[in-house]
Inverse folding.
């Protein structure tokens, strides 16, 4: 990739991407309610580092996680997360109305069965609970610039995602096939899908700009941000 766009440009794009990732996590924490006790489920908890941040923000008494990669599970358990090894394309291994909060950061883009996943989130949520979903934004400048240059808007779903020249994670090897994105959504598409499965969008925020630097465009345009963060409530 460095040969395609130059090392300096690659470094700039990589910085912009990491800034967008940090902005995404900050936006997620901003929509988390502080409430004593309760249970949190982090779908795709990884090594548990961000799960701990969400749990501390929410002040839950128990933090659960689902992960499929063994070394990530070990790290998350070491951080105090109650982790179950499972595939998020399958039903969630928990009883109904068990969680106060369900969190999924950049997860649904990777699933073969998004409909089942959303139904399962609604099932395991308490009636007064909520879900926080963060997804890659189909309408982002990243996607638009890529398409304008005749490139893929998102990396193809394979083990080593070759991506395109605007993707700083090009040729990055991933420990799991589930790490490759299968599709992305715009806000309208996500909202309609969630509504169909019994949720209403209580709050929507946008975060990050890539390949544009956030300090250049962050206060001028939110629709084309890199990430969408939706706070969802189940219909009564």
């Amino acid at each position: 990739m460095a040969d395609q766009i130059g090392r300096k440009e690659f470094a700039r794009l990589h910085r912009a991407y990491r800034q967008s990732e940090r902005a995404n996590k900050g936006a997620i924490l901003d929509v988390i309610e502080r409430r004593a006790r309760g249970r949190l489920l982090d779908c795709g908890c990884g090594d548990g580092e961000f799960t701990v941040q969400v749990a501390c923000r929410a002040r839950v008494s128990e933090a659960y996680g689902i992960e499929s990669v063994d070394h990530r599970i070990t790290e998350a358990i070491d951080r105090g997360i109650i982790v179950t090894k499972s595939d998020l394309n399958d039903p969630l291994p928990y009883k109904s109305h068990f969680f106060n909060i369900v969190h999924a950061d950049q997860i649904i883009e990777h699933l073969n069965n998004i409909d089942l996943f959303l139904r399962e989130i609604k099932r395991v949520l308490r009636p007064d609970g909520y879900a926080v979903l963060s997804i890659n934004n189909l309408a982002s400048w990243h996607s638009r610039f890529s398409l304008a240059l005749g490139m893929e808007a998102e990396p193809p779903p394979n083990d080593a995602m070759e991506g395109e020249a605007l993707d700083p994670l090009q040729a990055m090897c991933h420990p799991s096939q589930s790490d490759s994105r299968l599709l992305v959504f715009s806000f309208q598409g996500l909202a309609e899908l969630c509504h169909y499965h019994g949720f209403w969008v209580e709050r929507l925020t946008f975060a990050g700009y890539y390949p544009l630097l956030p300090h250049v465009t962050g206060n001028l345009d939110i629709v084309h941000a890199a990430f969408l963060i939706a706070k969802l409530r189940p219909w009564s």
Notes: The longest helix spans residues 7-31.
